[in-house]
Design brief:
The structure is a single chain. The protein has 9 helices and 20 strands. With 354 residues, it is α+β, with helices and mostly antiparallel strands. It folds into 2 domains: 4-224, P-loop containing nucleotide triphosphate hydrolases (Rossmann fold, 3-Layer(aba) Sandwich), CATH 3.40.50.300; 237-351, OB fold (Dihydrolipoamide Acetyltransferase, E2P) (Beta Barrel). A 6-stranded mixed beta sheet has the order 6-7-8-3-9-10, with helices on both faces. α3 crosses α4 (137-149). The longest helix is centred in the middle third of the chain and has 18 residues, at 167-184. The two termini are 35 Å apart. The chain binds adenosine-5'-triphosphate. The site of adenosine-5'-triphosphate has 11 residues, from α1. Keywords: ATP-binding, Nucleotide-binding, Transport.
Length: 354
């Protein structure tokens, strides 16, 4: 049985359809991120799972139970909002006890024990008597997380919970969320527009585009092999090149506009124009090859600019009229205008569907 099951879910506001026939299963204990640019519908989808928005069509099952028409309080879910939404007149402890009181779960002593245990999970059990205004943003966020997990819901829904935190705090909260998930085993749905955050936290990433699922998969798969131009651009650090694809032995070759050739592992039976993609870290730079290497088909590019990043240097290169980006170890230096050899494994070059 899946923790969450969406079947053919659509949502329209007036005559604008913002969620378009999405079907999705989330397994018990899974950590899934809904990722996509602003306006793609991720918050709306999360709010529909929570019951805060009704579905225009389709069904939603939570813990195997048809919950499509159930109000939020009757769905076994808890949600953490970007704004934390703590009650200012209650202490930290009372805020965390609040959902147990509302649902009349246990007596006061039991509620207290459970709230303290939840606060321990987020390392805030020493601040039980503080009011929210006397806490930092990160601490308020942790209280909101403790309040969400205290009733051990079937599903924990997180709507960009880290976006109000500064970069350093955000990183440590990401680590805490991973630990929390490991300790509680709660099925978690996490909304974010930050691809790095989605990749580092999730078992599975659902990439949304215009109210539809563009691609879904394990973080590594989505990062390494995006299927479409949208997915490749959104996942970042990719090079996209339009080329002519030709069958070649067991694989294929991509002919660039200056006549240079890239070899690909994937087989392609017919000649066609296509977008090929490789990641910037998969292109290895080497000094300009000699004539013998050139006759073996070494790939030549020229340095347009370089950006020092500390441990590595990013080079922008002109490869047959295409601007591409590559990463090189900091010790390796090429000057603007230098000719360099580019080595890219045929396994690292992928053909996009559109
Ligand atoms: P963001 O990252 O900016 O929060 P999102 O991917 O979460 O974006 P949603 O908030 O789900 O996107 O919005 C999806 C679309 O639905 C947007 O075009 C938005 O303007 C529209 N929308 C959302 N809520 C409503 C509403 N209550 N009434 C009308 N349109 C809405």
């Amino acid at each position: 049985m899946n923790a969450v099951q969406l079947d053919n879910i659509s949502k329209s506001f007036g005559n604008v359809q913002v969620i378009k026939n999405i079907s999705l299963s989330i397994a018990k204990g899974e950590f899934v991120s809904l990722l996509g640019p602003s306006g793609c519908g991720k918050t709306t989808l999360l709010r529909m799972i929570a019951g805060l928005e009704g579905a225009t069509s389709g069904t939603i099952h939570i813990g195997g139970k048809d919950s499509t028409r159930l109000p939020p309080e009757l769905r076994d879910i808890a949600m953490v909002f970007q704004s934390y939404a703590l009650l200012p007149h209650l202490t930290v402890l009372e805020n965390v006890m609040f959902p147990l009181r509302m649902r009349k779960i246990g007596n006061r002593a039991e509620q207290r024990d459970r709230a303290v245990a939840a606060l321990k999970l987020v390392q805030l059990d020493h601040l039980t008597d503080r009011r929210p205004r006397a806490l930092s943003g990160g601490q308020q966020q942790r209280v909101a997380v403790a309040r969400a997990v205290v009733s051990s819901p079937q599903v924990l829904l997180l709507d960009e919970p880290l976006s109000n935190l500064d970069a350093r705090l955000r990183e440590s909260m990401q680590e805490e969320l991973i630990l929390l998930h490991r300790q509680t085993g709660l099925t978690t749905v996490f909304v974010t527009h930050d691809q790095e955050e989605a990749l580092s936290l999730s078992d599975r990433v659902i990439l949304l585009n215009g109210g539809r699922i563009e691609q879904e998969g394990a973080p590594k798969a989505l990062y390494s092999v995006p299927r479409t131009r949208f997915a490749a651009s959104f996942m970042g650090s990719t090079n996209l090149i339009d080329a002519e694809l030709q069958p070649h032995g067991d694989g294929a070759r991509a002919l660039l506009s200056d006549g240079q050739v890239l070899l690909l592992r994937a087989k392609h039976s017919a000649k066609k124009r296509a977008t090929i993609m490789f990641r910037q870290e998969d292109a290895i730079l080497a000094p300009e090859p000699d004539n013998a290497a050139l006759s073996r088909g070494a790939l030549i590019a020229s340095v347009v600019t370089q950006i020092f990043l500390g441990a590595r240097t990013r080079y922008v290169l002109d490869l047959g009229g295409h601007m591409i980006r590559c990463l090189a170890p900091a010790g390796q230096f090429y000057a603007v205008g230098d000719k360099v050899e580019l080595k890219i494994s045929p396994d690292s070059i992928h053909v996009l569907e559109d």
